[in-house]
Design a protein that fits this description.
Largest sheet: none
CATH architecture of one domain: Orthogonal Bundle
Distance between the termini: 47 Å
Helix content: 55-70%
Number of strands: 0
Radius of gyration: 18 Å
Shape: globular
Structural class: mainly alpha
Order of helices and strands: HHHHHH
Strand content: under 5%
Length: 91
């Protein structure tokens, strides 16, 4: 009986961990709606803000990426973060 309880609990924890992994899956290409705001300094779209909020846990990882870092560190990106209510990054 104790074995069955341990088995059920471990399966539940494994499933919870897998769900967390799915939620935290980072995809910088999802930030493409922010491209105009980052490139020109224009006001970010609603879609951009939604994607920034979704990808917020990933932004510090993008800072060190050789492809995306230059965009995430840019003045215009920080303007977009602010306009979308994203606090300054503390990476």
């Amino acid at each position: 009986m104790a074995f069955l309880i341990v088995l059920v609990l471990s399966l539940a924890l494994t499933n919870a961990a897998m769900e967390d992994e799915k939620v935290l899956s980072c995809n910088p290409k999802e930030l493409s709606p922010c491209s105009p705001a980052v490139k020109t300094g224009s006001k970010p779209s609603t879609e951009c803000c939604a994607m920034l909020k979704k990808e917020k846990p990933c932004l510090c990882g993008y800072v060190n990426d050789p492809v995306y870092g230059q965009y995430i560190k840019s003045k215009n990106a920080h303007k977009a973060f602010s306009a979308c209510g994203i606090p300054p990054l503390s990476c």
